[in-house]
Amino acid sequence: MAELPEEKFPKLFFPPRLFPFTTLVIMQVAVFSTIVWSVVYNNAALTWVAAVFLAFIWFFNFAQRGLLAQSLRLVDRLTPDPPSTNNESLPRVALIAAARNEEMDIEKAVRSWVALDYPRLDIFIVNDHSNDRTPEILNRLVAEFPRLRVIHDPELHEGWLGKANAVWQAVQQTGPQCRWLLLTDADVVMHPEVLRAAVHYAEKKKLDFLTCIARLEHGSFFEEVVLPPLWAGLLQSAVPLQRRQVLRRPLGVGAFILVRRDVYLGTGGHAAIRSQQPEDALLAALVADAGGVTGSVWTNDLVRVRIYRGYADMRRILVRKQRLLTDDRFHRMIPGIFMVLNCDLLPLAVSVGLFIQIFSRNRYDYASLAAFLFAVAAYIERVRFFRLSAAVNSFRAPVPWLYPLGSAIRLWFHLCAAWGMLFHKPMEWRGRAFRNVRSESQSPGV
User: Fold this and answer.
1) Mean per-residue pLDDT for 410-419?
2) DSSP letter at 207?
3) 289 and 214 inside one domain
4) Calpha distance 24→26 (Å, rounded)
5) pLDDT surpassing 60 at residue 15
6) What is the pTM of this model?
7) Which of 296, 320, 344 is the last residue of a domain?
8) Same domain for 294 and 346?
9) SS3 for 33-91, per residue?
10) Which of 233, 232, 243, 235 shows the shortest CA–CA distance to 212?
11) How many C-beta atoms surround the C-beta of residue 77 within 10 A?
């Protein structure tokens, strides 16, 4: 392989800035313990303190919903009818997707790419050593659509992860006449107008890197109840500063990344993060660290993807992501664990517990009533947050009321990730085991 750029390790984890890390954890533990004890022990003073804490949780949940609503207003949304553009003025784009064992989704995705209303488009699909019917499907599609270019089983060099290697190999097939690279996944379905709209937006905003938050589709109850708040969190993290499309921190969503080819190569691209995951967020960080301008939009139904297929697949992927985003450092997970306990699980549990005590055990003191009302209010705010996430998710109407079940499952995934961290268990992606080189390369600390 030609000379490669030095591998880089951009930061993805940002410690809490408002309080020291340990202070934040102590506060969360104190909130959780006080509220639980106030339900178990009928002590007026303790219950008043718990009521104050529950009021704070209600306000936090209210603010989280407000932030999501603000995100829906402030983060730009691509529409399928951008201003008409002369086809001759459109820059050349290369769409690149790595496919490994994608027989269930690859054909639908590729047919949507071929149907893109963009005349100067090259499509590269890399079959990354699949052992299912993916190669057969791709060969049939190439015969039907000659504009497709398929690269089968590129040599995988030591120190490379499969997807990074596949994308890098395809980029080498593009020429300098190609201005933009569209990096996507082999299960992503696109509206015919989305690429034209995205290129127009990126050029108008003078961006070097644009990511689109796709609509996440769910095909099982577990996906519906667990995933919507997580996907809505992507939209929250994309809130622009001072109404400009400049992110607080770089955001990369692998379903749709549009990056200038010269900027990609100048940062080292996937070669600079060749042994690391998540490559989408790391690529965004690379561009930002190099001084590039990054941006994000949401697309409603213009880009759609079903990433997870049932409980087992969801557990495997989310546990891996949790470990990657915390660099396999257990203490970094503690605030997230208590956030789920305090903001998601406690409100409904306390509401039920106090309801039983108030109406069956005659616990009619003002402190208990206040705690009960704030707990109910906090629960309802999370339901409203869940409902609002329908802008980027698909789920059935009753599901938001069951969000504590999804939160309990996410808490279980946190514990599974912690188990893997503590016992140094390997991670897996598409049948390939890999280790977290990021955790090994960085010095200890928060």
Assistant:
1) 94
2) -
3) yes
4) 5
5) no
6) 0.90
7) 320
8) no
9) HHHHHHHHCCCHHHHHHHHHHHHHHHHHHHHHHHHHHHHHHHCCECCCCCCCCCHHHCC
10) 235
11) 15
- What is the structure's pLDDT at 66? 94
Run of H or E including 295: strand 294-298
| Claim to verify: residue 56 and residue 110 sit in the same structural domain | no
- One-letter amino acid at 206 equals K
Q: Which residue segment(s) compose the domain that 365 sits in?
A: 21-73+325-437
- Spatial CA neighbour of 130 closest among 102, 109, 97, 158: 102
pLDDT at 2: 56
Q: Is residue 368 part of a domain?
A: yes
CB 122 within 8 A of CB 178: yes
The percentage of residues in the chain with a pLDDT greater than 90, rounded to a whole number, is: 71
Same domain, 92 and 48: no
Q: Which of 320, 344, 365 corresponds to the end of one domain?
A: 320
Q: Residue 418: which pLDDT band, with cuts at 50, 70 and 90?
A: very high
Residues recorded for the chain = 446
Report if residue 9 sits inside a domain: no
pLDDT tens-digit series, residues 133-162: 999 999 999 999 988 999 999 999 888 999
Tell which residue, 348, 1, 382, 407, has the closest CA to residue 169: 1
The pair of structure tokens assigned to 133 is: 């019917």
CA distance 411 to 407: 6
Least trusted range by pLDDT, from 40-49, 176-185, 382-391: 40-49
pLDDT digits (tens, 9 = 90+) for 335-345: 889 999 999 99
Q: Is 52 exposed, middle or buried (0-12, 13-18, 19+ CB in 10 A)?
A: middle
